[in-house]
Amino acid sequence: MQRPVSRRHLVWTGAAVVALAAAAPLLTANPYAARLAQLLFLNVVLASAWNLVGGFAGQISFGNASLFGVGAYATSLLWLAGIPPVLTMPAAALAAALYGAAWGWPCLRLRGPYFAIATIGVAEATRIVANHIEAAGGASGLTLPLEQDIGTVGLYALGAVLAVVAVLTCDLVRRSRLGLGLVALREDARAAAASGVNVAREQVKAFALAAALTGLGGAYYAQFTLYVVPEKVFGFDLSISLVLMVLVGGIGTVSGPVLGAVIYLILEQFVLASLADIHLAAFGALLIFIVLMEPRGLAPRLVQAISLIRRRFRRPEAGGPA
Amino acid sequence: MKSELGELLDARGLVRRFGGLTAVDRVDLHVSEGEVLGLIGPNGAGKTTLFNLLAGQLRSDEGTIRLLERDIHGLPPHRICHLGLARTFQVPRPFLSLSVFEAVLVGARFGRATPSRSPASVTRQCLARTGLSSRRDDPVRSLNLAERKRLDLARAIASNPRVLLVDEAAAGLNPAEVRETVDLLRDIREAGVGIVYVEHVMEAVLDLSDRVQVLNYGGTIAVGPPDEVMRDPRVVEAYLGRAAESADGGGTGR
After folding, report:
1. Which of B96, B97, B110 sits opposite A195 (nearest CB)?
2. CB-based burial of residue B48 (10 Å sphere; 0-12 exposed, 13-18 middle, 19+ buried)?
3. φ and ψ at A273, to 5 degrees?
4. Cα gap A11→A77, rounded to integer Å
């Protein structure tokens, strides 16, 4: 049995923190680089959160924007009420977790395509309702005060912390009792239930946790865009992009969402520069290619390649006639 | 109606209908500590449906089920597992992407807790009892049928059951593997677990069972010591059919 927090975690977390700190001057040098870093951190958080339920429990959600939007609005409203934005983040996480648990509880009783369709329904309903809540700015959204901004470096640090926390959460869950139950019920819900797994409860737990992380992502988004509008934060595009990232990177793995987030950002920026808004189509084409060629995503293949290289470096003479 | 001492599972008057078909028809069933009840009958007799009723996968239309004096009728499967009833599946339902160790750990971590033992140590012991220790780090998908059947048993006993429902643990195995399975079930019974054993491999079920209950068309047609039951004319008829000219009901299709 692995210990929940191992030395491996400390080493990797330490390495990630050092690398992110070292990259900070470069990624805060100009507004464009800063925005890229913010979007990357955001994608890593959201994709990792999606993977907790989509990857481990095999329940594909097309509705995570509903959780993201709740987080973004919670922070924005509290911020406009005078609370410093960073301090509103626990409230954003809590609001999203409660909302996620509230609709996850009934919807997670469905499995496969039935669950996926239900998530679309909930998210679209949420978006439409949000468009009509005048107290939250209605369809024109909320514009946030520029003067309380925590600054480019502050946003970079906040995003980096959130991304590391999200990836670490993914890995801890994978090794925990919860993660074991999730994978078991993904593989065979009936056998898992017969082994004592409370299928409904374990899924709701994971979904509430994913919702909390997604809500934090929304809270972060509000702080760097300073503008929150239902069509964007509750938008279907956002939900779809998370599914694409994780499928391309590697579903059910810890590194997959990170890799998918990076690839998505590169592709988005690359295509946006020439042909605005066809990045989803480009990403869709990439997805089809990957599903055909590498159904488990790119991360497992990358891990394989790295371990191959490491082995070669460790024992250069052990190969024999090669 | 009070059950006798040592009685672990006591089901009475179970009925389950699927549309016009009565798959289980007023069946009584009980098993005591350290007892093996063999449950036999032709294909379609209702054995697996009966298991699904006892383990909570299906709800019975009529009847009562008591596990350790407690009414479990209508409880969900995971609750019934926590209360001490585990089952295996006719077609093993392993968790393919997990390792052998992890698959058994599911039972140990989520089933009925084993007092003062860690789930990992319970898992190691269950792997040793089922002869799977050497495969512990292999993926479940690499196991063959006999190994998957043993894995299913290991997962079930890892949840520390008082009653174990075993669905065709010997089917499709070669004679040596059947013997291993019988020995394993005997070992589990020695520990005081009450076993209900559905099996088509007669040598296994007759060898192991203290009592045998025969189902046909959803109802019990005989129950008692194995040798006595196998001589019962109704049982012989259920398995071999009646003389050809007899015309009530059309026989069992053999």
Report:
1. B110
2. buried
3. -60, -35
4. 38
Is B117 at the interface with chain A, CB within 8 A? no
Q: Quick check: B55 contacting A, CB < 8 Å?
A: yes
- Whose structure tokens read 């919670």? A74
A311 touches chain B (CB under 8 A): no
pLDDT, position B5: 54
Neighbours of B243 (CB within 10 A): 6
Number of A–B residue contacts, CB under 8 Å? 83
Provide the 10 A C-beta neighbour count for residue A86. 16
The answer to whether residue A294 scores a pLDDT higher than 90 is: no
How large is the C-alpha radius of gyration of chain B?
Answer: 18
Q: Could you state, in order of their start, the residue ranges of all structural domains in chain A? A: 7-235
User: Rounded to an integer, what distance in angstroms lies between the CA atom of residue A72 and that of residue A311?
Assistant: 45
- The angle at the Cα of B39, spanning B33 to B42, to the nearest 5 degrees, equals 175
pLDDT tens by residue, A154-197: 999 999 999 999 999 999 999 999 999 999 999 999 999 999 99
- What is the CB neighbour count within 10 angstroms for residue A151? 9
* Structural domains of chain B, ranges and CATH numbers in brackets: 1-84+161-174+194-254 (3.40.50.300), 94-160 (no CATH)
Higher pLDDT among residues A25 and B2, named by residue = A25
Q: From the CB of residue A172, how many other CB atoms can be counted at a distance below 10 Å?
A: 15
Task: Tell me if B145 sits within 8 A of B93, measured CB to CB.
Answer: no
d(CA A206, CA B103): 20
B195-245: per-residue pLDDT in tens? 999 998 888 999 999 999 999 989 999 999 999 998 888 888 887 776 554
SS (H, E, C) A213-229: HHHHHHHHHHHHHCEEC
